[in-house]
Amino acid sequence: MKRLLLIGAKTGYQTRTFADAAARLGLELTLATDRCHVLENPWGDDAVALEFKDPQDAARKLAEEGRFDGIVALGDGPAYLAAVAAQQLNLPYNSPQSVDNCRNKFLARRCFYDAGLLTPNFRRITDANTNVEFPCVLKPLSQSASRGVIRANNAEEFAEAFHRIKAIVPHDEFLLVEDFIPGREFALEGILTHGKLTVLAIFDKPDPLDGPFFEETLYITPSRLPAYARQEILYTTNKAIQALGLTHGPIHAEMRRNERGVWMLEVAARPIGGLCAKVLPGLEELILRHAAGEDVSTFALPDHAAGVMMIPIPRAGIYARVSGEDEARAVPLMEDVIVTAKIGQHLLPLPEGNSYLGFLFARGDAPARVEAALRQAHAKLRFELNAALPVL
């Protein structure tokens, strides 16, 4: 029996699905999370308690757990820790520097620019009075899921965006400002084996993402782009991977495409996040098989059309209830309706928020029909959010 190490956040959606997949495959899986080391096995999964803020110490602790045959990470922070641990455990994985390049939006932009990829004008800033060209986009260097990403069309909007972002990031952190890139957004899911990319899916993001915030909602696969455009995305993604220095493990890439070509937004050294992975049945098994050293280049995921909607939070408030779930599930092609918000939870929309109300999944014979089913199901749902009382 091969033994794998899975590093993930204690609150991550994916940890349990990977544990279940490992059991189906007959793999021994050791979990490592950022839970409190004082509590004795609070989730009953015998996970190793790690301090993610000290990767070197965490890696040493993992080395004491014995021999592993492979390593998997869920999330950007766990991916960096996995890279450090893989060096000590002598396991194939991305280097720490390559993962750091992915986690830092400024480093990633610099890698893309040096590799000759289409890149907007960009720079780090610390001052709301910086002279810039409009429209532009301000971003924190290290947040994910579009948190803190704001478009500004003039100096007044720029100053407001700057102060909103600074309120949600560490005080001394730079912000990134770059030219706004027009065009449609897409995503690519893949897995690297010693530098060679196997593409698992290309997703359309059919909703326009033009700002002022950039909340992702729909992912639809297969992409409806013509073959030559999909090849452009694949070519650019490969160049971006090489520029970042990634070599081994799952990747999730996001990009924009317009009349000038494909512009990389980011490449994450991890699989697609959260429950969104359900849109690709068998993804967990594939990633675990790959980590165990199996050849997955011919492993075929289901090829029918599929999609996921990340249900956006319409406004700030305290989540009270949802209605219309049965009606949403009854929409033809709908596969699942999962509300992840908890009663009494204080919810924030983007750009300050970093979560969703839940997820909708659909599957069918054509991408357009899947997209229509997701939109129809979403229209059936009615969420009640109560006003949050100010804290005195």
Commentary on this structure:
By secondary structure, the protein is an alpha+beta fold. Among the domains are: 3-101, 3-Layer(aba) Sandwich (Rossmann fold), CATH 3.40.50.20; 121-179, ATP-grasp fold, A domain (Dna Ligase, domain 1, 2-Layer Sandwich), CATH 3.30.1490; 304-392, Aldehyde Oxidoreductase, domain 3 (Alpha-Beta Complex), CATH 3.90.1170. 28% of the residues lie in helices and 29% in strands. The chain contains 10 helices and 19 strands. It has helices at residues 14-25, 55-63, 76-89, 96-103, 105-114, 155-166, 227-244, 283-291, 325-329, 367-380; strands at residues 3-8, 28-33, 48-49, 70-74, 122-125, 136-140, 150-152, 175-179, 184-193, 196-205, 218-221, 249-258, 261-268, 305-311, 317-323, 334-339, 346-347, 358-364, 382-386. Strand 12 (249-258) and strand 13 form a beta hairpin. The longest helix has 18 residues, at 227-244. The protein starts with a strand and ends in a 6-residue tail after the last strand.
